[in-house]
Amino acid sequence: MKKLFLSLFVMGALTFGLQSCGEDDPDTDCTTTGCPAGQECVNGACQDIVATCDFCGDYSGTATTTQNIAIPALSVDTGFVDLPVDANISQGTGSDYILTVDLSSLIPGVVPAVSGTLSGSTITITDAEYVYQGIATIVVNGTVDVSVTDAISGSLVLSYPPSSALAVSGAIDFEGTK
User: Fold this and answer.
1) pLDDT tens by residue, 102-127
2) Burial of 140 (0-12, 13-18, 19+ CB in 10 A)
3) Are 140 and 160 in contact (CB under 8 A)?
4) What average pLDDT is seen over the chain?
5) For residue 174, with 0-12 CB atoms within 10 Å meaning exposed, 13-18 middle and 19 or more buried, which class applies?
6) DSSP tag of 39
């Protein structure tokens, strides 16, 4: 009887011991965990890759016209030097970034947001349309140079077909810091 209890005790101890040596711990070195595109293995679990945008954020600075801004539908035809402007850069999808420039100190309510593509440290905006309150369409082209030193500078050309009664024209240079 003593041998039977001893045998049962040994079998029970081995069974418990073998169960506790199983693979309950996650794969913390990620050698066997495969993650789908857009995710990475962190401590054995797939997580979305979070892209960082060092230059995204708000910038305050000034703008100067290199060609008068003319928007006949809004009765605007002016030039300016060192006009206070605020800009914001945010990340879109992939290599697209959104540039928002607050020109409301010149024309109340005009805060165009346009999309551009990042290459190196330059965001290039090509034929991005901004429609102001259904009155005027403004086509924006230009470049914005960004840096991790918290400064931006750029040039934007505003246009709309000159043959149109709603013609828009003008160009500005701007710079700002975070």
Assistant:
1) 988 888 888 889 999 999 899 999 99
2) buried
3) no
4) 80
5) buried
6) E
